[in-house]
Design a protein that fits this description.
There is one protein chain. By secondary structure, this protein is an alpha+beta fold. Helix content is 49%, strand content 19%. The protein has three domains: 173 residues, Beta-Lactamase, CATH 3.30.450; 117 residues, GAF domain (Beta-Lactamase, 2-Layer Sandwich); 133 residues, Histidine kinase-like ATPase, C-terminal domain (Heat Shock Protein 90), CATH 3.30.565. The termini are far apart. The relative contact order is 0.05.
């Protein structure tokens, strides 16, 4: 049947509505798929941006930037957690350098940041200020609303936390949270790889430096090995100061023997008290100690600043801690890692070897010098003195065969000069050969040391000679008196005589100890130094002796003598 004009074909309303809904759902799902695909592509892009670098500083900054871009956040930050639970580093994105400067110090891990450190589980908030754990913001801090915090794990260790915020209350979705969690997992792997790469590089550098130092140590002329080692440790550990501390004059004192870094030239030779310092524990335990804060050591730089992160290692000699190797950074800088401590301990062992080797070389050099002195002393005694003595005897024989007159007098005077020369050479032989601590406690050495001590104030070093068994007789209080007399007499020559030459004689003869000091100065008026002469006379009369002083424009002669039989044994 033909369809009547004006008749329209229609579908039932209910099936058509279901089809529209189905189409709308399909379009919505397609849009969701496209959105998810877009966000997944963004996540893959972010992951790629993170893993394509091995420099840790670059990796950390890339992680924050990728997280901000991934969820469209206004601000982002990565807080690196220190071993003590505070924030060691804080890398942020979204703030200008000027904003960071006017805010002042970076966060320390309080409030919500601290909550995420204590309980490393994601935190998502619509408004920061509404949460009871929020600690507020410092002055000049930009406003922040929505918050998303996610921990970053490296294996089983929480390395740090990602913090994302918006200026307003634009809320982060559950999907945003899942994406950032996934990004944080990749970030943990990237951080671990960067840390391993950095540690490998550090170990390689330490190993190379160790080999170089060993070669330098074995070289015949290795210079100041300890100072070279301190410089290398500072470079490799990125430290601000490296000190080599050795025992001082006091038991509770260490001296900076070598320094590298801040104030290095001014710090060498500075004494540090360890009476109440943690470094005493290192000396007593002979174990290395890392410190997050070196303030407990009590040591300061020249500007008064305390030390920050510090490593202290004992320097061992013959099984005992003879010193400390201290490596430190300034406050606020990152702490040293376990790998840093391990490698620094190895270098401290090399420093100990260097100290022992330097001591052995010094002993060997000292032995060479002493052997050389002994040889010279033997040659003087066996050859020079014997030749002079023989020449004196020959001259004395010739003088005896001549008639009395100027010729024989000159020969006799020459014999006397030879005897004086022999006495001087014997004094030199004694100074060369007597090198032990026991020998240096004898009166001979005291007089020789006194002459050398006052020599810079005179035109020439005083000529010193001895006669008789001086070291056997002049001991104890008598030796102290003899030294005091010689010092007073030589000091007077320095102050008053204006002499070109000075002679000192200490002799034991005819039951007396005699001290004679003679100079060729211009003489003096006795009253000019009566108090000094009176002291010498008192020392002599108290021992039953005497003191005579002869002076003229041609020179002065002081003779001090006491009987040694009266001195108690």
């Amino acid at each position: 049947m033909p369809m009547s004009e004006g008749h329209s074909f229609t579908f039932p309303d209910e099936p058509r509505g279901e089809l529209d809904i189905a189409l709308d759902n399909l379009v919505a799902r397609a849009r969701d798929v496209l959105k998810i695909q877009g966000r997944l592509r963004s996540l893959l892009k972010a992951n790629q941006a993170i893993i394509e670098h091995l420099d840790l500083a670059v990796v950390l900054e890339r992680i924050v930037a990728a997280a901000v871009e991934l969820v469209g956040a206004k601000y982002g930050a990565l807080g690196v957690v220190a071993p003590d639970g505070t924030l060691e580093q804080f890398i942020n994105v979204g703030m200008s350098p000027h904003e960071i400067e006017i805010i002042g110090h970076l966060p320390e891990g309080h409030g919500l940041l601290g909550a995420l450190i204590q309980d490393p589980r994601p935190i998502r908030l619509t408004q920061l200020s509404d949460d009871d754990r929020s600690a507020g913001f410092p002055a000049h801090h930009p406003p922040m609303g929505a918050f998303l915090g996610v921990p970053v794990r490296v294996r089983d260790e929480v390395y740090g936390n990602l913090y994302l915020t918006n200026e307003d209350t634009t809320e982060f979705s559950a999907e945003d949270e899942q994406l950032v969690i996934a990004l944080a997992a990749t970030a943990g792997i990237a951080i671990e790889n960067a840390r391993l790469f950095a540690e490998t590089q550090r170990r390689q550098a330490w190993s190379t430096a160790s080999a170089e130092f060993t070669a330098n140590l074995l070289a015949p002329e290795n210079g100041d090995a300890i100072s070279i080692l301190a410089g290398r440790i500072r470079e490799l550990s990125d430290a601000d100061v490296v000190w080599v501390l050795l025992p001082g004059a006091d038991a509770d004192e260490l001296v900076i023997d070598s320094a590298r870094g801040l104030d290095e030239s001014e710090l060498v030779g500075r004494s540090l008290s360890v009476a109440d310092s943690a470094v005493r524990g290192v000396l007593e335990s002979s174990e290395a100690v890392p410190m997050r804060d070196g303030a407990e050591l009590g040591f300061t730089l020249l500007d008064g600043r305390l030390l920050g992160p510090t490593m202290t290692m004992p320097l061992m000699t013959a099984g005992l801690a003879e010193g400390i190797l201290l490596v430190a950074r300034t406050p606020g800088r990152p702490g040293f890692t376990a790998a840093d401590l391990e490698m620094a301990i190895g270098f401290a062992g090399q420093a100990s070897v260097a100290m022992e080797l330097e001591a052995a070389r010094a002993d060997r050099q000292r032995m060479v010098v002493l052997e050389d002195r002994g040889r010279i002393a033997r040659d003087l005694h066996d050859h020079v003195i014997q030749q002079l003595f023989g020449t004196g005897l020959e001259l004395q024989s010739i003088a005896g065969s001549l008639p009395m007159g100027p010729a024989s007098d000159r020969l006799i005077q020459s014999v006397g000069n030879l005897d004086a020369s022999i006495s001087q050479i014997r004094t030199i032989i004694f100074a060369l050969s007597a090198h032990t601590d026991e020998a240096r406690s004898t009166v001979r050495h005291w007089i020789i040391d006194l002459a050398n001590e006052l020599a810079p104030a005179l035109d020439a070093t005083p000529s010193v000679s001895f006669a008789g068994p001086v070291d056997l007789v002049v001991t104890g209080d008598l030796a102290a008196d003899v030294l005091a007399v010689a010092r007073e007499a030589l000091t007077n020559v320095v102050k008053h005589a204006g002499a070109a030459h000075t002679w000192v004689l200490v002799a034991v003869r005819e039951g007396e100890v005699v001290v004679e000091v003679t100079d060729d100065g211009h003489g003096f008026v006795v009253g000019d130094r009566r108090s000094g002469v009176a002291n010498l006379e008192h020392r002599a009369t108290s021992r039953g002796g005497g003191c005579e002083l002869e002076t003229s424009p041609a020179g002065t002669r002081l003779r001090w003598h006491v009987p040694y039989e009266t001195v108690p044994a």
